[in-house]
Design a protein that fits this description.
homodimer; alpha/beta; Rossmann fold; 12 strands; 45% helix; elongated; transcription cis-regulatory region binding (chains A, B); Transcriptional regulator, LacI family (chains A, B); DNA-binding transcription factor activity (chains A, B); DNA-binding (chains A, B); Lambda_DNA-bd_dom_sf (chains A, B)
């Protein structure tokens, strides 16, 4: 494979002149430009854009750290990001981490070594202290509420959102509410659990630790939980579920087992995914698609920005 | 070092079957699974893609051309790709095209200018003639049946698969079957429509052109179609639907309107997504996750390879 030096040698000009011709730069004498073009043809030289990017310090690549791509929540977010990026000259590089810290650090190191220009964390396991260390490596954007100089973020106030949903269930006469969350130590889960505990305290109700269900992410997790709750004979009167897939698994399995929703157990989902519409699930609308676009805008801005995202309860038939 | 082809050859099965066994995928016959395990032992095959003799590029980036990321079919495929890549030093660059030709050509140009090492087309609009022009730019892998020198592919025989499903419905006494497809001019749709027409001819049945429903991709498309069919009073006795999302939209909406499935109308979906399990949908299992891994292996091998993927009908409660 011919490189720029081969072209220069054959054309009898400097590498800088070849570079000028390649970039349609003015002030190249006509005979030299012709010699360069002839040499390019003869050597079959292809311009390696990576080399140019290194010079300019711009790769036009935005890294996306995302735990899973096969989950509707994350794929919708990724879709919003990809759509926003598609209106620019940028491309996205996906780091599908499965919450593996090494993969997250790998992404940070690519930012540091200038292989990507910006990095968006859709969700993370790695500590904020580690992220801070890469602060000066390039633009980092987080999808959570942080206050770190130079790092932009968009976030949902999961505390308020959970509080609103719990109040709504309380108004509908539910006093024993269970919550289904994903990773207990995730930033969102911590806020949600706090809202849950504060709600019980504010209503002077007894909280049962066994009513906090963790590790719920996929439809099948909901189906399994429904079977467990049905068999146990010890089910809360309402379930606040942090994603529609799990809520759909709960709903369809309860129905299969002969329970009516909301008569036997009320359910609120989260995300307002298409499946929730089909199943008439009451859920919380989160504009993932728009958030994806917002994150890209933040990744491309030189200023540090911060946005709170509002959520709304969509009342259907499961409460 | 043995590769997946050597294992398949020794076991006397397809590469897709080996991939299914490696991924503990269900729906593999016991004797085939045993043969595969025996062949793995004999060849000393290891699934670590890094261990295979790979063509090492300079960017360690693999481009993925994919129309949408927010659709379960494509996101599961992308997930398989991302998972396979995560065992290597490579990263993926996503070209989310929304079937826009310019975006597809953009990806091909990035391959040509060596910004990526390989390019996998999950689905395309751009003509094969254009793709051929980039043949020497780097490794191109297509997820469809093509015979172009230097271009690898994995594919599903959509014709045979549709024929099998139609025969299954015919055995269940359905003689007026409707089909729901996505883009009418997509490569898969063309094969499927041909199978549909050939089936009607072979059974000496009259095909009604209005029983071919196009533009069906999302759950809401199925919901809308169900309402239209219910109101029209002119519904086939069975529907063969090319994705589970649409099938789920049809099923839940028919139920809402008071129709029973399969008594009033039978439904077969496609993909065997989680939603189909929850709704007891009869569907066609396509091992998207394994296919994603296969495509990556093909993208990293220097040889040109071709694999046919087997599909199976998963019989549940909607036929």
């Amino acid at each position: 494979m011919a490189n720029i030096h081969d072209v220069a040698k054959l054309a009898g000009v400097s590498v800088a002149t070849v570079s000028r011709v390649l970039n349609n730069h003015p002030y190249v004498k006509a005979d030299k430009a012709a010699a360069v073009r002839e040499a390019i043809k003869k050597t079959g030289y292809t311009q390696n854009i990576n080399a140019i990017h290194l010079k300019r310090g711009k790769t036009c690549l935005i890294g996306i750290v995302i735990p899973f791509l096969d989950h509707p929540y994350f794929s919708q977010l990724a879709n919003g990001i990809a759509k926003a990026v598609s209106n620019t000259d940028f491309k996205i590089v996906i780091f599908q981490t499965n919450y593996n810290q090494d993969k997250e650090i790998d992404a940070l190191n690519m930012l540091k070594s200038k292989q990507i220009d910006s990095l968006i964390f859709c969700s993370r396991r790695v500590s904020l202290n580690i992220i801070k260390e890469y602060n000066s490596s390039g633009k980092i954007v987080l999808f959570e509420d942080v206050d770190i100089e130079g790092i932009s973020c968009s976030y949902v106030n999961h505390y308020d959102c959970f509080k609103d949903a719990l109040e709504f269930l309380f108004e509908s006469n539910h006093t024993r509410i269970g919550i289904c969350i994903s990773r207990r130590k995730g930033t969102s889960s911590i806020q949600r659990e706090k809202a849950f505990r504060d709600f019980y305290k504010s209503k002077n109700l007894d909280l049962l630790e066994r009513d906090i269900y963790t590790g719920c992410l996929y439809l099948e997790d909901g189906a399994k939980l429904a079977q467990r709750l049905y068999k146990s004979g010890d089910c809360p009167s309402a379930l606040l579920v942090t994603n529609d897939q799990v809520a759909a698994g709960l709903l369809t399995t309860f129905n299969d087992l002969g329970w009516s929703v909301p008569e036997d157990v009320a359910i609120i989902g989260f995300d307002n995914q298409q499946i929730s519409k089909a199943l008439h699930l009451t859920t919380i609308d989160i504009p993932l698609y728009s958030i994806g676009q917002l994150l890209v805008e933040q990744a491309l801005l030189s200023e540090t920005t911060k946005h709170e995202i509002d959520l709304e309860i969509v009342k259907r038939k499961t409460v």
